[in-house]
């Protein structure tokens, strides 16, 4: 049996998992040429949260990063994580936007599109798979691994076969929470290899300490490639370290041979960068987190929710909120917990605890229940679906959600032109997902106000759920006069106070 190959995630998932995706392109460029000489089967350099975070926090234009990294590392295939019809945003986009984004990404050097769907609905992956193939790139069909009473090895294999029929070049097991046990891994990889003629890859996190033994089982079962990172941006909530995995395979006929001196050099170069990102790192993300095993949720979701519960003054409700997560998951068809469904389920669990079960339903949770995110593995609770339909004023759907979307590229081009911004396809597709951030990117710096701006509202005092814009929702509570609001922005909850006047 030939040696297993490794994909290196240090330039994307490594720092996304351990440093809130805050690594800058300038810090990646000295490392990229060395990585390019290592013989990795792929370098993950883009996608996931890196486009959002780079634009929002680092003020970097996404395609500029891809261009720079491709120039610095031209010989190794570049890989990105793509959320199917969600692209790298948080909702479904029109087919022409998906096609244009994939085409532009391939034009700028992306070679492998690792495509998944947050509810494991292959229909939400078909447009991006087709677009990647048409652009001359590889499309890897990805199965989000999760545990529930309705998820089985047979079900995952069936999904793998469906993706293979769509023409994908490989199947990837995506274990976003680091929960797949070694023996289950062996069973799943063996079954996929038996039923498919295309390569099988695996991705996990070492959050719960299972990552390395899970990879060993996958390798024994014949997996073709594993995702690894490089310390200090490895282990914990990231992927197992490359040097560590290579050492664990000593004596195995499948042990790969990656240059240890170069791995040590890269690790030394990363150390000061990691230290510079200390505002975004946490010791808790670096160690085995048994809470992940207890609550069966991704480590990143755990750390984010500790912060959100603190902001909501609900620290004492931690156990109660996380006990509510499986209740919400079951009602919503046992959906996997991955972006954006992890945020949707988590916020709804918090709402259930804060206001009473299903008394306040976020628009995003309602859309999952009504089928606007896709077909769930198990049926949605009919009573919850009925509540969502009444609240949102729309009926459930069973079609592919994007079938309801009208072509949007020309509309996006017009919006950009009206604002005096570039109207090429690159700007259209980024603007589709992050309009405020694109406008902010091109905005000239304004002088800071001398005094804080006081925001007052003359809105009615009755409790209500409103959708403001761009995936932002607000739950209002309290009597007339000053009121507390819970604002949910892209799945993140924030507390604000609004003073009522008039």
Described by the principal axes of the CA atoms, the overall outline is globular
Separation, N- and C-terminal Cα atoms: 77 Å
Main sheet strand line-up: 1-2-3-4-5-6-7-8
The percentage helix is: 40-55%
What are the segments in which pLDDT stays under 50 over at least 5 consecutive residues? 453-472, 475-480
Q: Overview of this structure, please?
A:
Helix 8 links the parallel strand 5 and strand 6 (170-174). The protein has 22 helices and 13 strands. The N and C termini lie far apart (77 Å). Helix 6 packs across helix 21. The strands form two sheets. It has an eight-stranded parallel beta barrel, surrounded by six helices. The chain has 502 residues and is of the alpha/beta class. The protein is globular and about 60 Å long.
What keywords describe this structure?
22 helices; five-stranded mixed beta sheet; 502 residues; globular; alpha/beta
């Amino acid at each position: 049996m030939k040696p297993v190959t490794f994909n290196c995630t240090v330039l994307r998932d490594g720092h996304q998992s351990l440093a809130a995706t805050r690594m800058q392109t300038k810090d990646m460029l000295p490392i990229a040429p060395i990585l390019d000489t290592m013989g990795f089967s792929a370098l993950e350099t883009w996608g996931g949260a890196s486009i959002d975070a780079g634009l929002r926090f680092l003020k970097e234009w996404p395609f500029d990063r891809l261009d720079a990294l491709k120039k610095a590392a031209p010989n190794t295939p570049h890989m990105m994580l793509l959320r199917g019809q969600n692209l790298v945003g948080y909702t479904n986009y029109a087919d022409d936007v998906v096609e244009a984004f994939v085409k532009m990404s391939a034009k700028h050097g992306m070679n492998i599109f690792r495509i998944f769907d947050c509810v494991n609905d292959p229909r939400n992956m078909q447009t991006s798979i087709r677009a990647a193939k048409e652009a001359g790139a590889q499309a890897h069909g990805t199965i989000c691994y999760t545990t529930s009473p309705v998820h089985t090895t047979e079900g995952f294999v069936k999904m793998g076969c469906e993706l293979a029929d769509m023409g994908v070049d490989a199947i990837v097991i995506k274990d976003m929470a680091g929960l797949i046990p070694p023996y289950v891994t062996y069973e799943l990889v063996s079954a996929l290899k038996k039923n498919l003629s295309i390569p099988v890859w695996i991705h996990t996190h070492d959050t719960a300490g299972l990552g390395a033994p899970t990879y060993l089982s996958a390798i024994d079962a014949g997996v073709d490639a594993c995702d690894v990172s490089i310390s200090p941006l490895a282990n914990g909530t990231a992927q197992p370290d490359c040097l560590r995995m290579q050492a664990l395979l000593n004596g195995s006929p499948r042990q790969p041979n990656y240059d240890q001196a170069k791995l040590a050099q890269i690790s030394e170069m990363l150390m000061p960068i990691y230290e510079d990102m200390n505002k975004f790192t946490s010791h808790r993300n670096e160690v085995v987190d048994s809470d992940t095993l207890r609550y069966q949720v991704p480590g990143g979701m755990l750390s984010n929710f500790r912060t959100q519960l603190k902001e909501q003054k609900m620290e004492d409700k931690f156990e109660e909120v996380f006990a509510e997560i499986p209740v919400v998951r079951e009602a919503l068809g046992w959906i996997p917990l991955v972006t954006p469904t992890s945020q949707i389920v988590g916020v709804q669990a918090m709402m259930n605890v804060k206001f009473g079960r299903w008394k306040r339903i976020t628009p995003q949770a309602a859309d999952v229940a009504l089928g606007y995110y896709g077909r769930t593995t198990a049926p949605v609770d009919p009573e919850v679906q009925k509540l969502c339909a009444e609240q949102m004023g729309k009926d459930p759907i069973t079609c592919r959600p994007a079938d309801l979307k009208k072509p949007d590229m020309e509309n996006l081009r017009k919006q950009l032109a009206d604002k005096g911004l570039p109207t090429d396809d690159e700007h259209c597709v980024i603007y589709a997902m992050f309009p405020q951030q694109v406008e902010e990117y091109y905005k000239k710096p304004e002088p800071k106000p001398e005094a804080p701006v006081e925001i007052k509202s003359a809105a009615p005092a009755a409790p209500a759920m409103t959708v403001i814009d761009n995936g932002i929702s607000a739950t209002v509570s309290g009597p007339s006069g000053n009121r507390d609001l819970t604002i949910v922005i892209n799945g993140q909850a924030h507390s604000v106070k609004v003073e009522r006047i008039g």
